[in-house]
Amino acid sequence: MSSNWRWQQLVMRAYYDAYIQDRLAFEKMLETEAYVILEQANTIGADKAMAQALKHINKADTELVSQDLKEKVFDYGEKLFQSIGAQSSVEMYQARSAERGAVLDFIDYPLNNRWWLEDEFKKIAMFKSEEEKLTRLEFIKNYEFPGEGSFYDNISSADAMHVTSKTDDAIDFLWENDGLSKKRLSTQLFQFSPTLEYSGLDATSDYLIRVSGYGEALLRANGQRLQPTKYEKNFEEFKEFPLSKDLITDGKLKISFDKPDEEHLNWRKQSRVTDVWVIKQ
């Protein structure tokens, strides 16, 4: 059985999954702790807070976890190359390209937002005033935490509480820079026309629906098209739609998106949704 390539694939996948789960738990913890450090920015200064937070989250690159599992993955990568010529790496096994099953080349790809934070901190360091820096850091720190009575969903995360749509298509992943994108992890996964459902909203309060993604977002709330007050179309920009309490008299909300006419566009250029906030006003 150990020489059977089908069995080798299964075992390699099992070790790969176990390694990723261990890394994910560790790297998510580091990111959470980095945001705690950013909470001190008002007292220690923005620049110092950014330096300390980045140093902490980058421990993922120096305090390595579960290397025994990683070694097993590479062992089975070699066995598969010997048994059926499986090219699971561009450098090691001359895979045609990184996009063509070179899974070994991405085994240590960040599972937290440290690459994105590094780029964001560089931008913030160029701000002229401390107030501007602190405002942006506050936004970053609370990106996924809009406050009590409000909601955030990363559309493609297993942690998303309100997403009811599913996708089984391999084109729901942003591919750029040979798979080494430095965008937020939530930006790199998406759905074209997701649906989200909420209950228990405050029927006496208005809300603001914020959407991030790319291109158009033809949003409906309980079946009614909403008009945006902000409509940015690039990655990691935002669209905002005021939601009147008149549309949620029972405290329930269903968000859906009409699909724009983009059949003339390659799927890589078509509109998509990555993040959705429902923010109590």
From TrEMBL:
UniProt protein name: Uncharacterized protein
